[in-house]
Amino acid sequence: MPQDSATKPLIEVLSGRRQAVPPLWMMRQAGRYLPEYRELRAKAGGFLDLCFTPEYAAEVTLQPIRRFDFDAAIIFSDILVIPYALGRSVRFEAGEGPRLDPLNTPEEIAGLVTHADFGKLEPVYEALRRVRRELAPQIALIGFCGAPWTVATYMVAGQGTPDQAPARMLAYRHPDAFAKIIDILVENSIQHLVGQLKAGADCVQIFDTWAGVLPPREFARWSIEPARRIVAGVRKQLPNAKIIGFPRGAGGMLPAYVEQTGVDAVSIDWATEPAMIRERVQPRTAVQGNLDPLALIAGGAALDRAVDDVLENFGKGRLIFNLGHGILPETPIAHVEQMVARVRAYKG
Ligand code: CP3
User: Fold this and answer.
1) What ranges in 2-139 are assigned the alpha helix state H?
2) Does the annotation count 17 as an active-site position?
3) pLDDT tens digits for 285-325?
4) Which site among 131, 190, 234, 279 is 20 to 30 Å from 305 CA-CA?
5) Alpha-carbon span 124 to 75, nearest angstrom
6) Which secondary structure element, helix H or strand E, spans residue 183, and what is its range?
7) Share of the chain above pLDDT 70, in %
8) How far apart are the two ends of the chain, measured CA to CA in Å?
């Protein structure tokens, strides 16, 4: 076997081969809980400067790998780089999260450009090439995009909201205009994921952080159907592309999501009922998750118990150990080390 095709445990699981010790990484593993991240973030200036300076983005991508020896690195970027490349104004205010120019009338939506300027995303691809050169061959590199529904919630409201009411309302009142936003995001997300895979990503993840606020009919239309089109569109260009879906909060809609999108793995949040996943999801696809990020902050016996629950619930099938959502900035580094040691000691 040529050296560059060394086996990657994460890709093995995505290819249908369970690993005795599940591969492990954390959503948002590059971030504010790491002092070396905070240092480079201060040096870079703005958050988008950090994302779009390949040297910096590559460095923060590698920081958690050096510390914890995870099985995967996720490229440091953001889901809002697509609206940015579509010419929307995207700013990250310190301590407040993202701010965009709201897009909430059919007239404004009619003026939305259909093709992103992918030149603006070239630094993301360059950062991937740099990371791939430096990463050990057995560690997988993950690219990503936001799911159209979740990206649209920020584009419509211009910021995060607790229940995404502005986007839900627009989708009820003006479904055709809303569908236009989704269609534009589907096409550009396909191209962005293909660009990342060609630049060295081994697999990609679609983050649908706000899928769980949708009633079943809307979930099928705005979460499942766009994800299905993205998976099909990427595989049309790259037939072996490995794709993880994360429809957070999907609950009982997970079997339909998995069946209809054809993802190679589904990431599940910590509230998901485990027997349903074992019986109706894991036989079809790999499962990624689902430690409660608060258990990671708590540490001690509560963390050990929570880690063991994930392993007992899903370790007999194909599992990628992860959190149920991103790691929180106040998480102690020692607790991440405790989690890693316990997962790696699993005798599956
Ligand atoms: O996981 C990783 O380590 C890779 C990098 C990554 C970031 N954002 C970096 C980031 C990934 C995969 C994302 C995805 C993302 N971005 C999502 C979906 C996943 C999720 O966590 O729900 C969403 C909804 C966004 C949009 C976004 N970006 C928000 C709402 C915020 C502000 C909230 C926050 O955590 O500060 C961001 C900023 C952001 N993206 C930060 C990081 C590390 C914090 C920026 C900082 O350093 O101040």
Assistant:
1) 9-14, 35-44, 47-52, 54-68, 81-85, 106-110, 122-134
2) no
3) 999 999 999 999 999 999 999 999 999 999 999 999 999 99
4) 279
5) 8
6) helix 175-198
7) 99
8) 27
Indicate if the pLDDT at residue 4 is higher than 80.
Answer: no
Active site includes 41? yes
Third-level CATH fold of 5-344: TIM Barrel (3.20.20)
* Those residues with Cβ within 8 angstroms of residue 221's Cβ, 6 or more apart along the chain or in another chain: none
Residue tagged active-site, from 37, 56, 125, 154:
154
The 10s digit of each residue's pLDDT in 166-198 is 999 999 999 999 999 999 999 999 999 999 999
- Tell me, in angstroms, the distance from the centre of ligand 1 to residue 30's CA: 10
- The CA distance from 344 to 25, in Å, is 12
DSSP 288-318: EEEE-HHHHHH-HHHHHHHHHHHHHHHTTS-
Catalytic entry in 18, 32, 67, 91: 32
How many angstroms is it from 196 CA to the middle of ligand 1?
Answer: 18
Residue 78 annotated in active site: yes
Whether 141 is in the pocket of ligand 1, judged by its Cβ within 6 Å, is no
Q: pTM, whole model, 2 decimals?
A: 0.97
